[in-house]
């Protein structure tokens, strides 16, 4: 079993793979045993244990910040960008925020045990569907250490055990956070193995986790394109995937000018690096203030790439190439197309949307409803910024990710998405004829 | 592109694979286009088109029965067992039943458009989650030709296009049924490509369907262990899997004797070949009528394999080996273990259940509730035969299968399991601070 960090540059050799499978099988068996205990805990027990975990993060602040400082130093040596270092770095305020977030998850209503539906059959059988935990969840994520605490807290709140595999940049931070969480949970009567961190950064361990269909019930990948591509190629475990956010905003001919400009600038520029950021603006050919709209975006610091008609709106627009319509920029770059009415907008979105979030701005209620019904994305919006695509903004309290697949859960995934259901049947001795 | 039936005995060669990928890509593109039209159809339109499809099955009865006779003749030549031939064979009454089942699906309530949940945020955003079709569904199944009509009708009722890949034994029957269905749907304004049959029996086409993650949204495999194993090994498309049904019945010490005997005999012997049939009987060591219970099963024609204590109950019981506890017999064979109380029964079920259906018989309400809460299978029952594990018996009208996975849908899967949801957000120009 690999218990030491061994970074393999490329290509998992056969012995690595077998060792990694053994390692993950051990973690999964530990997780399964812990989950069975966790499944018997009450709402109050789980909430109390999570509050103890939050307090343990505060109690161990010094150790966590010291571990994080090691990661930051190592990251500086490895030449991480300042943006990456900023995402990695913790300070007392950020750590307090992480602990508070765990308390907030503790305060969320427990979804487990909820009766989703019930019915009685003519033969007297009483049926009900009751929400239960999924079981053992694997989460593969990249550099932000706060994910360690957020994801663990959400999984445990919904009665699941979690196996976390964080990025190598944050390995010391993640270990220190995980140790504090496990200590707090154990003090609250929840087995420490309910939250485990894969103890190696070997890439073979990721492959083993993706293959562990017998021991792991769901994988949530949170990371960039290379991680997502690997998960898609290798996973044998069901995946709750978060792919690209190629989000569109369509400014209809009947859009209010001030609203269109405010929504478009916010959707693109509030934070350009999040998956809900607008990447393509579709302007109706009959919208009378198109030049003003692109001007506002350019004035806000956005580089605009346009189709032929869009380029005619402002001399600062450069021509888009075919790839632009399928690009998630995640920076202050926007592609703009002029479209002839709702149907053309829908056709563009059908062809190029990644199915994350697409929005319309219009004062015409009927057109808004047509758009909301016709666009088949996880989130469709009328007259709002696509940057609202977020579990917190949706009132879910927190999110484990935004799912762009079609099964199980779509859009922001929070506690409910970390549960499944079972059928309970209560009879009085019925036999089937 | 392979448009002719070419049965490859073993091993997909590279050219076959490329051809099969092209074939499936074409079918998937056709399906996607048809599904977009279907998604715009009303409840009434879909119901009317399905009634036309049912009528087309009746109108083309002669052609369908003639095609089926070809399959039966071929099956006899190939030496299919009489049970397999019986499952394959259609007559006027069976075909009428298939058409009536399509009418029954037409009469089911349309799940699409249902608002699952809604809320208003403090900033005035109105959120709702609305049920929508999944999209394009692939179904891989074995010999019964009724599945062609049942599965197509269910998919279309919920607004999905379907790509069907039936067994080679029923290829002519399936083609004739599919042609009638497509004609009826088209007469009702639904594109014929909403229901398609993979036009080749080449095994490479199954592989291509399992890999078609860009074009197919979900795969439902309905078949034996070899199909399930292939799907688990190869699928890149999300799978709604139906694995083994190793179903347990636990007769508690406080079980009513007559009820225990009636439920156990029904659970095992009503039909031994269905996935909800009991495969293991757990008898509480304190249940006073254990010999009578196993005697009733043996008298009903069941071969019983027991653990040490079970063998002492009746001289006709043979010793079970370790593999028996993990075997889905699907015939008149039963494994029986004597267990010491609820906890021992739960431990046995945890170790050996396939997560399909497990039941308890007891007159003690508290024990029944403990069992219903503790057993983590798709269906848990108290005082009822596990043979009730069926979409029709659950009031779902019909079922596409019984899911034993943990995500998306569990237990009998019907129209609701063939849908997903999207978030609709209605604003008045909100931007995110």
TrEMBL record, chains A, B:
Segments forming domain Aldehyde dehydrogenase:
24-286
Matching entries from InterPro entries are given as: Ald_DH/histidinol_DH, Ald_DH_C, Ald_DH_N, Aldehyde_DH_dom, G-glutamylP_reductase_CS, Glu-5-SA_DH, GPR_dom
- Per its UniProt entry, which superkingdom is the organism in? Bacteria
Instruction: Please give the SUPFAM superfamilies that the UniProt record associates with this protein.
Output: ALDH-like
Query: What EC number(s) is this enzyme filed under?
Result: 1.2.1.41
The answer, when asked if Membrane is one of the entry's keywords, is no
Alphabetically list the UniProt keywords.
Amino-acid biosynthesis, Cytoplasm, NADP, Oxidoreductase, Proline biosynthesis
Protein name from the UniProt record: Gamma-glutamyl phosphate reductase
Question: Which organism was this protein described from?
Answer: Croceicoccus naphthovorans
């Amino acid at each position: 079993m690999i218990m030491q960090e061994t970074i393999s540059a490329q290509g998992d050799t056969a012995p690595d793979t077998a060792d990694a499978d053994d390692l993950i099988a051990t973690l999964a068996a530990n997780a399964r045993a812990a989950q069975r205990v966790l499944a018997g805990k009450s709402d109050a027990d789980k909430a109390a244990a999570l509050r103890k975990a939050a307090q343990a993060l505060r109690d161990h602040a010094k150790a966590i910040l010291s571990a994080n400082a090691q990661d930051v130093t190592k990251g500086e040596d490895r030449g991480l960008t300042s943006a990456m270092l900023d995402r990695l770095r913790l300070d007392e305020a950020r750590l307090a925020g992480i602990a508070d977030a765990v308390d907030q998850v503790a305060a969320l209503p427990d979804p487990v045990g909820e009766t989703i539906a019930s019915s009685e059959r003519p033969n007297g059988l009483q049926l009900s569907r009751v929400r239960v935990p999924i079981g053992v969840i694997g989460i593969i994520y990249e550099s932000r250490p706060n994910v360690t605490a957020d994801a663990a807290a959400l999984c445990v709140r919904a009665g699941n055990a979690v196996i976390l595999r964080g990025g190598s940049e944050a390995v010391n931070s993640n270990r220190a956070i995980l140790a504090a969480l496990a200590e707090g949970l154990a003090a609250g009567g929840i087995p420490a193995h309910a939250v485990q961190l894969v103890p190696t950064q070997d890439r073979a361990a990721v492959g083993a986790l993706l293959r562990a269909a017998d021991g792991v019930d769901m994988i949530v990948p949170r990371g960039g394109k290379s991680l997502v591509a690997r998960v898609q190629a290798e996973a044998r475990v069901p995946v709750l995937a978060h792919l690209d956010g190629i989000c569109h905003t369509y400014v209809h001919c009947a859009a209010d000018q001030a609203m269109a400009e405010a929504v478009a600038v916010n959707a693109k520029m509030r934070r350009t690096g999040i998956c809900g950021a607008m990447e393509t603006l579709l302007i109706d050919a009959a919208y009378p203030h198109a030049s003003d709209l692109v001007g506002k975006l350019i004035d806000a610091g956005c580089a605009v790439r346009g189709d032929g008609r869009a380029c005619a709106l402002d001399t600062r627009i450069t021509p888009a190439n075919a790839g632009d319509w399928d690009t998630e920029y995640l920076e202050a770059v926007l592609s703009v197309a002029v479209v002839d009415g709702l149907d053309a907008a829908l056709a563009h979105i059908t062809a190029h949307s990644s199915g994350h979030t697409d929005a319309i701005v219009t004062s015409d209620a009927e057109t808004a409803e047509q758009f909301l019904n016709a666009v088949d994305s996880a989130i469709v919006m009328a007259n709002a910024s696509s940057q609202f695509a977020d579990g917190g903004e949706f009132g879910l309290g927190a999110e484990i990710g935004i799912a762009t697949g079609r099964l199980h859960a779509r859009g922001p995934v929070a506690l409910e998405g970390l549960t499944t259901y079972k059928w309970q049947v209560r009879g009085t001795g019925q036999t089937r004829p």
